[in-house]
Each structure stands twice: as structure tokens, then as C-alpha cells.
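Hello again, I could really use a second opinion on something today. Take your time with it, there's no hurry, and the full record follows here:

___
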Amino acid sequence: AGFTVLESIVAIFILSLSISGVFTAVQRSLSQTNIAKDEVRAFYLAQEAIEIIRNKRDVNQLTKIINGPSTNWLAGISADAADPCYFGKTCRADATGPGSVYLYSCSGGWGTCPNLKQDSGEPYMYNYSTGVTTNFNREVQLESISATEIAVTVRVYWTKGLITRDFKAKTHLFNWIP
């Protein structure tokens, strides 16, 4: 007429299995949410670096229109070996404010640039000079395709726990005023 001890133990075991399954599913979904949030941040950091290079190219093109053909479309980017993002070098791109674009050469290949810092006053602003150091690292490499085309590859990588994740974005820029 009543539950035996064995039946009660089996019922508790089945109940604990179902509850632990729900907790595991919730934990995994929270972990995946954090990974997705970091991937979105990496996407936007990579896109920002591409836009910084594109902006510098466009300023050079407008200068070429105003001052004549003496201005190289890659001046200050990769026009000669002294430029920070010369072909084969790894560089970092930093936009510190409106109209302020800086390109810096890193010491070697991939993995040699410092981590980005997050501005404490503006939580969505990243730079290399002020703020709290993040686990995100952003690096840029350029490749010459032809006299009028370059490939821009941006790699953003970060470490979460013991796992290093990375995101790469690549685009092609053209000399639209030959």
C-alpha cells in the first residue's frame, strides 16, 4: 500500500538525474552566450580595424584629388618599408577619437601586438593607451595583390579560461583614383 525504501531511492535517483540534466543545459547555454558575446565583440573589433585602414586610404585619395598625383594612395599605411603596415609586417590600428587614426608596427608576425585596453569612461571604446587591459588582441597584415589592390587581413584573438579563440576578417581595398 505504501512506497518501499527501494522504490523511494529509485524515484529520488530519477528525479536527481532529471534536475542535473536541466542544470547542465542551463550552464551550457550561459557558456555559449558568453562565447557568442565575445565573438560579436571580436567581429566589431576586426571591422573597426578594416575601417581605420579604409579611412586612411580614403584620406590619401582625397589628398590626391586636392594636391595632385604626388600623393600615394597607401601613404602612411604601406607605401614604403618604413610604413607601419608595410607588406609582410604585422601592425595594429588605433582610432583614439574623431579624425585621430594611428597605425603602429608590431615587433614581429602574428601574436606580437599588445592587448587592447577598454576605456573605463566609455565601456564600448577600445584603444592601446588608456583603460583596463582586456583579453582581446587585434593585429593587421596587408598583402599586395597588384599596383591598385591590397588585401587587408585582421586577426582578433582572445583567451577565455584555457581556450584561445580567434576571428579573422579579410577584405580587399583598391586604388580608386589611378
